[in-house]
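Before a colleague's protein record goes any further, I have to sign it off. I want your independent view on whether this chain really folds as the tokens say. The record follows directly below this note.
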Amino acid sequence: MNYRYENRGPSTTSNPLRILEVVARLGTGTTAKEVSDALQMPPATAYRVLNALVGDEYLARTSDLRGFALGHAISGLIAAAAPPTVPAAARAVIDAFRSGNRFAVHLIMFRNAALRIADEDPDYPLQSASEMLRYPHASAAGKLMLAELGDSASALPKGPLMKLTEHTIVDKRRLEEVLAEIRIKGEASEINELEQGSARLALPVRRPNGSVGAALCLSGPSERFDTVCEHAEEARQLASGLAPFLF
């Protein structure tokens, strides 16, 4: 592939990304000259940005100090972006639970103070998946995660909370009260907060150290939420059984 960007001018934002792209493509040992040539970038600019990326650990120097390789910070970004891995045995257990119920069952993982969809119910797909991922204060899984974080303020936007429905909790003081209740109860719920007409119960899946690393979510129409909650104890046992497969 020919890395030529004749129509692109220098950019403080784009240069590091373009350099990372070249190193990823050319592989370990990529030299500064190769980067400069590939991007038609002045050598001084290439060296400056390369050194900055090394300092931030997005790149690493090879042992002979002649070339560059992707650093461990990039590995972290890749891991964060990749879908969570759910072992086949865990999926089988979840599917068995789904087969006996007429409501949705989703597995949501917590990663770096963010929600990640690990196993979505194929028969009842999430209708507001993007909203759930972006606005944790509005979903049962998100509130379970925020309660686990303790200092949930650091995971919330600095400005006003997004009001998705008339029932969404947007008062931060009230939200903190709800999170405190979740810590005591060990579960979270939401009715018509993420989307009108739906409700969810989120039960914790705990890591070996006791911290919560995922949520098993039961979801159904808001008018049938009491029926969904009747399966909470069975779902708790499932969440406990999933933990060894996931963590």
Observations:
- Residues 6 and 234 are 61 Å apart (CA to CA).
- Strands lie at 59-61, 68-70, 104-111, 114-119, 188-191, 198-206, 212-221.
- Confidence is low (pLDDT under 50) at residues 1-10.
- The first helix runs from residue 14 to 26.
